[in-house]
């Protein structure tokens, strides 16, 4: 029996089909995916037209001319084709591909799989060797790749992992991670990736070698990059593991430096070596090549950012090192030269009253030295006429009748006018305000008289002006208050103004209230306006008078009342009210609304405040107590004035437009029966 099985390489010129057995894509490379099978006896003539797909309903028709041997696709296929093993009865069946060998033992055509594939358990189909394996010597089994080698699924051979990579589970060559390298092929496991030496990095994955860091750089923590030296550090050489901290007095401000810059004089580097900072007060740095700030010696000082120290001035000292200023010598001491570390005490009778002095001062006459810090004045009542004296005992008492009027007196003097001798305090004191003393050498002062005043130390008293009086202490003249006056030029007390008068502040007399004003109390600073409805006609009024009947004052502060005019009447003495419409008043000075009279019949007062009534004109009339004359209605007339009604026109006549007469509206031969209400004329013969 002979069974022919085609390879997928024989399908290129045929329609693509799928096997009923596997369902795989024909392009996947298996031998059973696209196959056709026909079995013959070795004595049976081979007929290619009988070839069928394994799925019976799909038939393939060959052109016999296509069944001739064609070149193999590759050398591997040529090696697998053994022509001398092909049965005599079967022709070579190929289509731009290679056939497989025949097994002469059972006269059956057997699949021989290509590299990377092995026969399955049926022997009729080829399948891929799994990843990490390759086909062995026979095509029945797969063998694993060697360590450091790998293969993908279906690979014909194993591939050695290149440098920079390592084999992982024989299925792939993985790149060494950044920061590590591998300079050998065929390595297995990530342990074959080596860490770069100090000062070297592997920047990318799969590195074969490491790169040396340049000056101004150092490797990062995982050796994947050369980082620039941070500010404050530097590296002058290449291939070094770390950057160096800048030396004392030097810095780097930017990154990636291979050397440090020195700080200028008066400065030093900060701890981080990233900036130059000024030497603090009390320190200095004099080197142009950089260095640390040093303390100034005792007797000297320095300001901020100093390159040297300055000696303390005379009058100052400094006992400690590293100071930013010198200290003033305290009062009672001095320093006479520069650079002092301590101050000296003044000799007896000499002082330094303030701090920071370079020499002591001799106490003058009238004073004495007290504890080296000040020259104290001799107390009042004592004197001193020599310089450079020490102690209060150097001050002497004045002779009786004389005083040392002030502290620090050099001599004693007699008390002057305006002063008196205080025997207890041994001093001349000013006469107090309100007292005076005209003579010298007196023991007391005299008080000022009434209406007089004096200031402290006065020799005479001064009289107060008009409109003023002396205060109780006789120390000042004060103005008379509003409502009071003082008229004497020799002084005196302020007195109250009488009722009906007033005064302003500092008045020498009182002023009578003006007409329209009054003041019922004494001692007042102003007068009061008469209220509306009242008046005062003369000066000095103590009260206001009521307006007489028919008179009024509408506003305050008036000196006379106003008579109500005609057409109006007085209402509660504060206003004149107009008579209402329909009434009139033809007299002045009237009081109450009853003074307004009703107009006679036929007369009207059309507006408020009427002085007289107006007679109604012809064509109009006015009923009793009406406010206006009314026009006669149509058909009615009134030819007279001052009437209370209109007359109806007789039949056959009508009222004219003015309502003053009745007229005949019809032409001759016509008549009207519409008494006064319109023409409506008819012919005389009409019934």
Kindly list the characteristics that best describe this protein:
single chain, 687 residues, mainly beta, two-stranded antiparallel sheet, 1 helix, 70 strands, 1% helix, flat, disordered N terminus
Layout of secondary structure:
Blueprint (H helix, E strand, L loop, with lengths): L1 E4 L31 E4 L34 H6 L21 E2 L4 E2 L7 E3 L6 E3 L4 E3 L6 E3 L4 E2 L8 E2 L4 E4 L3 E4 L4 E2 L12 E2 L4 E2 L9 E2 L4 E3 L6 E3 L4 E2 L9 E2 L4 E2 L9 E2 L4 E3 L6 E3 L4 E2 L9 E2 L4 E2 L8 E2 L4 E2 L9 E2 L4 E2 L9 E2 L4 E2 L9 E2 L4 E4 L3 E4 L4 E2 L12 E2 L21 E4 L4 E4 L4 E2 L9 E2 L4 E2 L8 E2 L4 E3 L6 E3 L4 E2 L9 E2 L4 E2 L8 E2 L4 E2 L9 E2 L4 E2 L9 E2 L4 E2 L9 E2 L4 E4 L3 E4 L4 E2 L12 E2 L4 E2 L9 E2 L4 E2 L8 E2 L4 E2 L9 E2 L5 E2 L6 E2 L6 E2 L10 E2 L4
Antiparallel strand pairs: 1-2, 3-4, 5-6, 7-8, 9-10, 11-12, 13-14, 15-16, 17-18, 19-20, 21-22, 23-24, 25-26, 27-28, 29-30, 31-32, 33-34, 35-36, 37-38, 39-40, 41-42, 43-44, 45-46, 47-48, 49-50, 51-52, 53-54, 55-56, 57-58, 59-60, 61-62, 63-64, 65-66, 67-68, 69-70
Structure description:
The chain has 687 residues and is mainly β. The chain has a domain at 1-128. It is built from one helix and 70 strands. It starts with a strand and ends with a strand. Residues 1-109 have low confidence and may be disordered.
